[in-house]
Amino acid sequence: MAAEMETPSGGKWISDAYSHWDELRRTEYSARAGVCLMSGYIFSSRDPAIVRNHYIEKVVPVYRAATEQELHLCPGEWKYGSFFTTILAECRLFQPWAAERFLDNGGRIVTVALNNLQELRGKYDVVVNCTGLGAKRLCNDHKLVPIRGQVIKVRASWVKTAFYADFDTYIIPGMEGVTLGGCRNFDSYNTEVSRHDSAAIRERCESLLPSLKGAPVLRESVGLRPHRDPVRVEIELLPTANGSLRVVHNYGHGGYGVTTAPGTAKYAVKLVREALQANSKL
Predict the structure, then answer these.
(1) Whose CB has fewer CB within 10 Å in the chain, the N or C terminal residue?
(2) Are 1 and 247 in contact (CB under 8 A)?
(3) pTM for this entry
């Protein structure tokens, strides 16, 4: 059974996550960790709601309406727009850096195959389940579905500003090239690069920023975002043949994993402490 307790709102998780990324950005590790400031625009010709994000607006240093002149920065009949400054985290840099820090602080990485979480009973005081899409099988969680995404990384060093637009179109400059995207294919398990998606992404991004035409491709990537409504961050007491196992679940972030991960991790740590206290009373 899952523990009943008050769960923080998504806004709290995003706020805590932003504070974490911002603190890291200010340290000497920021370059190695792939964390830096980034500014950009989001445009829409369809709906003003597309250019607003009420959670993000409350935490980033700048989030304002685009001026009439800024609406003409990119080709298109843009009616609505916003300008923002936020934090970029390059996961291909951050994850190895974070793993190194974990090991340096005494952590261990052990790779095993599991059929279910109950197999861990007796080996650990508390298990934190961050298995992403794997939780669908491990937890028999039918609320968890993949949302397929595809991006193209190109060499375009002249692009220093991010641009977002209708139809999940985005151009994000980074430390290792510029990311062009994207797509959101609900309940798709296809991990192969689709040439049709590639062509659509290039067409939309080059229409938004014509200077990208001819930019050489560095790589193309496909990923499955583990989407769950709501995101699952809670304690569960799993019955086993030899007692019970306390599990702290933390998965189902979908396309907002980087945006919210430090925030949900902070809350998961709180749950771990509560679980350890409960264990000590047994």
Answers:
(1) C
(2) no
(3) 0.91
